[in-house]
Amino acid sequence: MKAIGYARSHPIDHPEALLDLDLPDPPPPQGRELLVEVRAVSVNPVDAKQRLGADPGGKVRVLGFDAAGVVRATGPGCTLFRPGDAVFYAGVINRPGSNAELQLVDERIVGPKPASLSFGEAAAMPLTTITAYEALFDRLRVPRGADRPGEAVLILGGGGGVASIAIQLARQLTGLTVLASASRPETRDWCLSLGAHHVLDHSGDLPAQVKALGLRVPHVFAINRTDAHWDAICRLIAPFGLVCVIDATMGTDVQKLRPKSAGLVFEGMFTRALHQTPDMAEQHRLLAEVAGLIDAGRVRHTVTQHLGRIDVANLKRAHALVESGTMRGKAVLEGF
């Protein structure tokens, strides 16, 4: 099968940063595995971080987490899917990735592809959807449903892929005021288009902006540059609130949360699959729920760039984009 991988960690402009590969097909699926024919992929910051920080020592490794495709075969323990089903998923960090024509993946972390989306559009969604959903409803314990006047959730770093889903889920599934942050006009407009009630300027005084709105913020989802915003977060978080982070927090002084009896939690969307938790199939359920929201027109895909076919040149372009730190939404590639 065709695949794209790497053997040594290099900057993305290095000629061997990514390599064309011809690999054996995966073995027949076992247990609850699906064998998926990959039709489209997306690229996330974790792809670039793995390429740069996890040197395989000369052994070939295939990256890729987001994917959409068609089930070609199922393991004997499968109950959720059959051959021919269209699916989308985000894989797991310790198995061969989606930058290949065929991939084995556990059905419990796979969702039915939204019928209203193309494979490329669907491939943009899984990793960011799982991360945003788990951060909001599992880690931050954001209440679903009824209006909560005067209370808000703040999504820091509103232009990226995770925030693009978190804004929509918070607006569609909760009664909170949805605050996002951005510093560029185009990113501000993007956040508003996704449903943010207000967009704060994270290059300015965030606590003052929250105070001016007269809102209480018991939920903060810090997506990037948490260290840079930590003091502001600790000042604006409501007593007994929770802060969820997904990036590195090496410079954070968690004691600053202590006077407010506030808490710090982490979100890692690979945790369930890596540790085979009893509720691992929750990722299948939440992907199916969001697929329904998409098909109902309540949540939209976040593709902002379609880079063409899945090949080395286009995949290198995608890695460079996510490394730039200026992307809105997601970039996808479709077809080998």
UniProtKB/TrEMBL annotation:
Keywords assigned: Metal-binding, NADP, Oxidoreductase, Zinc
CDD domains linked: AL_MDR (cd08252)
Record-linked Pfam families: ADH_N (PF08240), ADH_zinc_N_2 (PF13602)
Residue span(s) of domain Enoyl reductase (ER): 17-333
Parts of the chain that traverse the membrane: none
Keyword Plastid: no
A GO molecular function held by the record: oxidoreductase activity
Highest rank taxon of the organism: Bacteria
Keyword Methyltransferase: no
Leader sequence residues: none
InterPro entries: ADH-like_N (IPR013154), ADH_Zn_typ-1 (IPR014182), ER (IPR020843), GroES-like_sf (IPR011032), NAD(P)-bd_dom_sf (IPR036291), Zinc-ADH_QOR/CCCR (IPR051603)
Gene3D superfamilies linked to this entry: Medium-chain alcohol dehydrogenases, catalytic domain (3.90.180.10), NAD(P)-binding Rossmann-like Domain (3.40.50.720)
SUPFAM superfamilies: GroES-like (SSF50129), NAD(P)-binding Rossmann-fold domains (SSF51735)
SMART domains per the UniProt record, alphabetical: PKS_ER (SM00829)
NCBIfam families per the UniProt record, alphabetical: adh_fam_1
Family: Belongs to the zinc-containing alcohol dehydrogenase family. Quinone oxidoreductase subfamily.
Protein name as catalogued: Zinc-type alcohol dehydrogenase-like protein
Species whose genome carries this gene: Roseicella aerolata
Organism taxonomic ancestry: Bacteria, Pseudomonadati, Pseudomonadota, Alphaproteobacteria, Acetobacterales
